[in-house]
Amino acid sequence: MKKHLLALSLLTVTFFTAKSQSIQIIDTASMSVAQPSYTISVDADSSNAVLFWVKNTTSASINIQLKSYVIYNPGGELLSYCIGTQCHSAGQPANVNTPIPASGTLTSNGLLLDFTDFAGQGYAQAMYTLFNPLHTNDSASVTITYKITNTTGIKQNAANYSVSNIAPNPASSNVSLSYDLKSSNQPATVKIYNMLGTLVKTTPLETYSNNTKIDISALEEGMYFYSVTVGTKVVKTSRLVVAR
After folding, report:
1. Whole-number Å distance between alpha carbons of 158 and 234
2. Whole-model pTM above 0.70?
3. Which end of the chain is more exposed for a tag (fewer CB within 10 A), N or C?
4. What is the CB neighbour count within 10 angstroms for residue 74?
5. 52-86 pLDDT, tens digit each
6. Three-class DSSP category at 31
7. Which domains, from first to last, does the chain contain?
8. DSSP 8-state code for residue 158
9. Which helix (H) or strand (E) holds 8?
10. Who contacts 135 (Cβ-Cβ below 8 Å, separation ≥6)?
11. Residue 202 φ/ψ, nearest 5 degrees
């Protein structure tokens, strides 16, 4: 199986490594062109969200699509992504065009990569390739390896909690979240952040188990991510798209 996955990875890289004429993936930490691969350490039972910008280097508008490949994920971790306003599980293509204007850059609606650990050990790996559907050799790729730092296999308190995804998503004015915190005696909140990492809304969860509604009508259109926190522990992180 590992040989098969390695062969798939090499074939995919070979197919998409032609010189990119128009697409650049930008590392928002260094504000430079992204490296071909990154290794990110994630605590067991935790989540990670990383944003890349996508730049059109030409003087003409282009449309882009995305292919994603799960190279290794034996623990069944949650791997997902958003590009523009499209969000999918890794392995599913974003085959609807996302436009980028001439010399423009997708920033808040760029390439957002989500990871949530369930296995408590090991690692997972996925590759994301952005390409121009009119010229498939015009592409740019990034491979992310998520290394889970707690390799003891001992699950933490997050396994005792049940938290749904926010719905609807995309949303325009109100969203709902169902949760069961198993009679936790610690304060719990939902925090929404913009793509710059700025906290824009906090909603307390005042009971152990409920379905709560959150008013997002004051948020501007765009991509956000939210975290559900119990005490000091983040038990869920995912993305939210506000569209009107």
Report:
1. 8
2. no
3. N
4. 13
5. 999 999 999 999 999 999 999 888 787 888 888 78
6. coil
7. 2-148 (2.60.40.2310), 157-242 (2.60.40.1930)
8. G
9. helix 2-16
10. 21
11. -130, 130
Determine if residue 152 is left, alpha or beta; phi over 0 gives left, psi from -120 to 50 gives alpha, anything else beta.
alpha
Q: Which residues, 6 or more positions from 237, have their beta carbon under 8 angstroms from its beta carbon?
A: 46, 47, 48, 49, 114, 116, 225, 226, 227, 228
Nearest-angstrom CA–CA distance, 64 and 145: 24
Q: Which helix (H) or strand (E) holds 6?
A: helix 2-16
Rg (CA), the chain: 19
Q: For tokens 């983040």, what's the residue?
A: 234
- Tens digit of pLDDT for each residue in 232-241? 777 777 778 8
Q: Are 105 and 53 in contact (CB under 8 A)?
A: yes
Amino acid at residue number 17: T
Q: Which residues contact 55 (CB under 8 A, 6 or more apart)?
A: 23, 24, 25, 26, 100, 104, 105, 106
